[in-house]
Amino acid sequence: MSVERKRFDCSALPKGWQREEVMRKNGLSAGKVDVYYYSPDGRKVRSKPQLARCLGDVIDYGSFDFRSGKVNNLLLRKQRKQRSSQVEYSRGVRTDASLVPPIRQTASIFKQPVTVYKTQEGKVKTDFKHGPQEKPKQLFWEKRLEGLRACDTDGHELRAMELPRGLKAVGPHVNEETLLQSVATALHVSSQPITGQTGSRTSLDKNPGVYINPDQPLVQALSVGDEDIKRQEDRVHSARLKLQEAIKGMLA
What we know:
Layout: E1 3-9, E2 18-24, E3 33-38, E4 44-45, H1 48-55, E5 64-65, E6 70-71, H2 73-90, E7 103-107, E8 110-113, H3 176-189, H4 201-206, H5 208-211, H6 226-251
Antiparallel strand pairs: 1-2, 2-3, 3-4, 5-6, 7-8
């Protein structure tokens, strides 16, 4: 393939660097010009990344045009403008948007302030630079288990557990089944005492996303006294006696 080569000194690069233009004479790519650079020791450079590996931080590659071998003034001014804006930003010239109350905008002529609730402290970390982050807890995630039933080996549904009358569910559309799943999950997962929801029932039903504590099950807070403990101990003792009698009947 016939080509025409022209080599010049490149003033934008350090002393000794040359720029070569290779024009193709024939074929489908006739008239196309390929650009190469040669180092003072004769190394051939075919691309800007390769040029950066050879020269390091000697020049500003963001404003250097590889095709023409010149510094692009438009890119250079743009970079200087970005740097100056970053300096102004770091000096605090801007207005802090976090200090401005949020605005709900439904139309260009209709704006209303948003009510911000700060009664519930979140545990989600905002620093994304150090280590894995704690996932936010999903409120009412136990409701996903509604409709599921435990079955025996023959496929027959097991009888649902009867809850004490003192346990009352809180939250919109929370039934006893969801309450049982919520309490069981809290006993299995949570490492803190189970106290239930301490807010008023009205506020919990009206705005559960704000007033319900996600670390506690969906049950109204209640106090357990000595009589309740004694009654439960008697039930456990009675269940153990029945179990012993059943085992004796099997062994007889």
